[in-house]
Amino acid sequence: MMESNLFSLITIVNKENVYEDFKNNLRTQKGVNYELIKVNNDHNQFSSAREAYNHAFKKSHGNYVVFLHPDMRFLDKYALRDVLDQVTKLPNLGVAGISGCLFKLHHHKSTVVSTIVHGDPAHRFGQAIKQPTKVQTVDECLFVMDRDFCQQHPFSDIDGWHMYAVEQCLVALLNGKVNYVVPCRMWHRSTGFSENWQYIQTGKEIVRRYGKHFSSINTTVTTWNTRSKLSLLLIAPLKLVKHTLWRKLHLA
């Protein structure tokens, strides 16, 4: 039951004005029992999202833990309730998100499924879904794990600010769990990707650690072909450049 569950909402804050807007929007949400945990990183107190989230989790009390960006916005007063209500009913939950990638590739590319809108002006990105859908990985903008899974599988020691939800999804799959994307009514105000070449280094490390278990690692940014050294050296970075240029042109 939603009423009996406490949800711990954890967000990392670099810009106070963005966080204040987030809090004002969060106050409009009805039908959710939550605690909000702010992780200050305005002076680079943490070297990675993984470190920051592990730190914050120790302060949490929720049955479920919601990790989300402070530029997420809820489009009506029951948007958060309806997402979390779906999450509590998912069987064998590993990680649930509101945007993510299917296992199967389409023309050698990841298929993104989501109902969120991105950017300003807001636009849709990916294939819309009408019900919870099994995926390989979810996006970092908002994802949920239950408390037991968080305790058993804390975030790893990989540095930086990328692919931490992706990694948790891979860990979940290797432990027999199922990952999902659920429909939502939410707006991610950023374009959903930071142009940071550290992403490539993180991706290579993810492939090094988990690639032997998966023929590809599919993310909302690019597809990592784990069976090809050429892919790791060249193809994934080129896809990243193409993806970045596409976003710039699309949002211009």
Describe the biggest sheet? 7 strands, mixed
**Which structural category do the helix and sheet elements fall into?**
alpha/beta
CATH class: Alpha Beta
Can you list the strand order of the major beta sheet? 2-1-3-12-5-13-10
Q: Would you give the CATH topology? A: Spore Coat Polysaccharide Biosynthesis Protein SpsA, Chain A
CATH architecture identity: Alpha-Beta Complex
Number of DSSP E strands = 16
Weakly predicted, low-confidence segments: 241-252
Can you tell me the CATH superfamily? Spore Coat Polysaccharide Biosynthesis Protein SpsA, Chain A
Structurally, the number of domains stands at 1
How large a portion of the residues is in β-strands, by DSSP E? 15-25%
How would you state the average pLDDT, rounded? 90
End-to-end span in angstroms?
44 Å
**Which outline best applies?**
globular
Helix content: 25-40%
Protein name: Streptomycin biosynthesis protein StrF domain-containing protein
Pfam family, one: Glyco_tranf_2_5
Organism: Limosilactobacillus secaliphilus
